[in-house]
């Protein structure tokens, strides 16, 4: 797997990131890179700052200090317009899925496409919607309402809606949370298929070890707002460190 980063381009670079809420320090000093074409898994217990990290990365939360660079553009110094332009290259799969319940699957997927890719014809929009639905295995759900779908199906539709704008970077926030083991495995395999088919670079926030084992090219563990360890899956699985063993055993 892709653990040798020599000569590979950094698509995200986070340096000395700090974030607090009042007196509660969430991220103390986080420095990490995401390389082109890799799946980087960020592990950690609840409350270690995993979700805060990617919310800072997409500009949903302001940082206290430190820099975030995406495709060599400084997110922390970007204007509103520049930030919007960078965000269009990023896909964000929320933990909840966040579908619009009043819209059909088709309308949900068309929504970001019409907003971001304004030059497409109706035929191109239709073609793109069908393509992403086929890629997540749900072409026959195009005219259903979200309420008619299972949790796993909703997650797949959310993923299709994210993919429809052809993101270069994918951010997955707990993609398998709340799903049964079989569906969780399907979502993990889908993450791998998307990496291959869309050539995405991804950050996968999870505490699901099985998801990490299936998807990771490299792993970072956060603990108390700091990076506790960084390495390959094999290094994590064979470590004698008791903190790591509590996750992997």
Automatic annotation (TrEMBL):
Keyword Manganese: no
Domain of life: Bacteria
Keywords tagged on the record: ATP-binding, Nucleotide-binding, Transport
Database matches in Pfam families: ABC_tran (PF00005)
GO molecular function: ATP binding
InterPro entries: AAA+_ATPase (IPR003593), ABC_transporter-like_ATP-bd (IPR003439), ABC_transporter-like_CS (IPR017871), P-loop_NTPase (IPR027417)
Residues passing through the membrane, by range: none
SMART domains: AAA
Residue span, ABC transporter domain: 12-249
Signal peptide (from-to): none
UniProt xrefs under PANTHER family: INTERMEMBRANE PHOSPHOLIPID TRANSPORT SYSTEM ATP-BINDING PROTEIN MLAF, PROTEIN TRIGALACTOSYLDIACYLGLYCEROL 3, CHLOROPLASTIC
Record's protein name: ATP-binding cassette domain-containing protein
Native organism: Flavobacterium azooxidireducens
Phylogenetic lineage: Bacteria, Pseudomonadati, Bacteroidota, Flavobacteriia, Flavobacteriales
